[in-house]
Design brief:
By secondary structure, the chain is an alpha/beta fold. It has one domain: Ribonuclease Z/Hydroxyacylglutathione hydrolase-like (Metallo-beta-lactamase, Chain A). The chain is built from 11 helices and 12 strands.
Length: 392
């Protein structure tokens, strides 16, 4: 399926056609400067995110509780030089707002390595420490891959690249220009958080030399050691998003396309929900992109939020239900005033979160609600923004 995602007809029993969405017009949606500062502060200081010591390196624990401690000890049996002759995938907890919230991945094949996602500038020491633990020289890193340029995925790219002399950043064509010139991203984020809070959350984001940024078209591939990595454009969450297919590991790196599966919420059966944060949510494209992941042939999905999972059908079914609800909420919000629309959407999302949790045997406690507050607020604003575009 190409990046236009014209049809989601491979959803069982459905054949939906849709026109390409319009470019984002100016629509008077009222972004509130500083509106998320309090939410980030709550998450940072909540007991939920202060378990004592957080895991910085996790192997093969997708959907599970991150282990205590600071990760595996450095490998003493591996030379810290290029020439590694192994294939492996390492999940790195970036400790963004706390453990188990955002991951980056270190992919090693033969004598080359790649990072998938960078999180923020503050996470870069953790990524470099993972190289040390795995006995991999910084010169061996060939690719730094960002699924899209939201700052919890790509905010650390410039700082990471400065430490990796042979690496090239791989990005969606619409994302690449923001890596070369991040000024618009920084300006818009500072307008929301304020300059001081932005620096605390994301650090300093510098331009990347255009010669070290490569744009990848839909279905384009690159080599890593002897393995092939293929890139599929997946709209729905962001118009500049791709996923990464890794047949050698039977894996797919999904960014935000395949939802959020926080380890701390997996106390019952699987519990997943999508990200519909501003500004590009598109329900039909999201449905289609979920199906691209589900039918990719991968045995496991490596989620940025958070970890490796193998029950792709279960997660896809939950996400489709959420996306259908989100689409209906957008339609219901179109005739409402902006503040009323967002309040209505948020109330409905809260209700669905409780219902979905109960369905899988998860009793949400106060700490869970603290974790979910930011995502629910962002999701409500994202849907309200889409409604405001349709309102005109």
């Amino acid at each position: 399926m190409n990046c236009a995602m014209r049809s989601s007809s491979n959803r069982p029993g459905q054949d939906r056609q849709r026109p390409c969405p319009p470019r984002q017009p100016r629509c008077g949606f009222n972004w509130r400067p500083g509106s998320f500062v309090g939410l980030f502060e709550k998450l940072r200081t909540a007991q939920f995110f202060n378990p004592g010591s957080s895991a910085s390196l996790v192997r093969g624990r997708g959907g599970g509780q991150p282990p205590a401690g600071t990760g595996a000890a450095p490998r003493r049996d591996a030379a810290r030089l290029p020439g590694m002759s192994s294939s492996r995938l390492v999940t790195i907890d970036c400790d963004y707002l706390g453990p188990g919230f955002a991951a980056a991945y270190l992919r090693v094949e033969g004598d080359e390595a790649a990072f998938v996602e960078t999180n923020t500038t503050h996470a870069v020491p953790r990524l470099l420490a993972a190289l040390d633990r795995e006995g991999i020289a910084r010169e061996a890193v060939r690719w730094v891959i960002v699924t899209h340029v939201h700052l919890d995925h790509a905010g650390g790219a410039s700082a990471l690249l400065a430490a990796l002399p042979n690496a090239t950043v791989l990005a969606h064509p619409r994302a690449a220009r923001h890596l070369v010139d991040p000024s618009k991203l920084v300006k818009s984020a500072e307008a929301v958080y304020g300059a001081a809070r932005f620096a605390e959350l994301y650090g300093t984001i510098l331009p990347i030399d255009a010669a070290r940024v490569r744009s990848l078209e839909d279905r384009e591939s690159v080599l890593l050691g002897g393995a092939t990595l293929s890139f599929v454009h997946t709209r729905g969450h962001a118009n500049h998003h791709f996923i990464v297919l890794d047949p050698a590991r039977e894996a797919v790196f999904t960014g935000d396309t395949f939802g959020l599966v926080y380890p701390h919420l997996q106390r019952g059966r699987r519990f997943a929900f999508p990200s519909t944060s501003p500004t590009d949510f598109d329900a039909e494209a999201a449905h289609a992109s979920i199906e691209v992941v589900r039918t990719s042939g991968a045995r496991r999905a490596a989620l940025t939020h958070f970890g490796e999972i193998e029950d792709l059908d279960v997660v896809a079914a939950q996400l489709h239900r959420w996306i259908d609800l989100s689409a209906s909420l957008v339609e219901a919000a179109v005739p409402l005033a902006p503040a009323e629309a967002e309040a209505m959407i948020r109330k409905a999302l809260d209700k669905e979160m409780e219902r979905a949790a109960e369905e899988v045997g998860l009793a949400l406690d106060a700490r869970d609600h603290e974790l979910l507050e930011l995502d629910l607020a962002l999701n409500a604003q994202g849907l309200a923004y889409v409604a405001s575009k349709r309102r005109g």
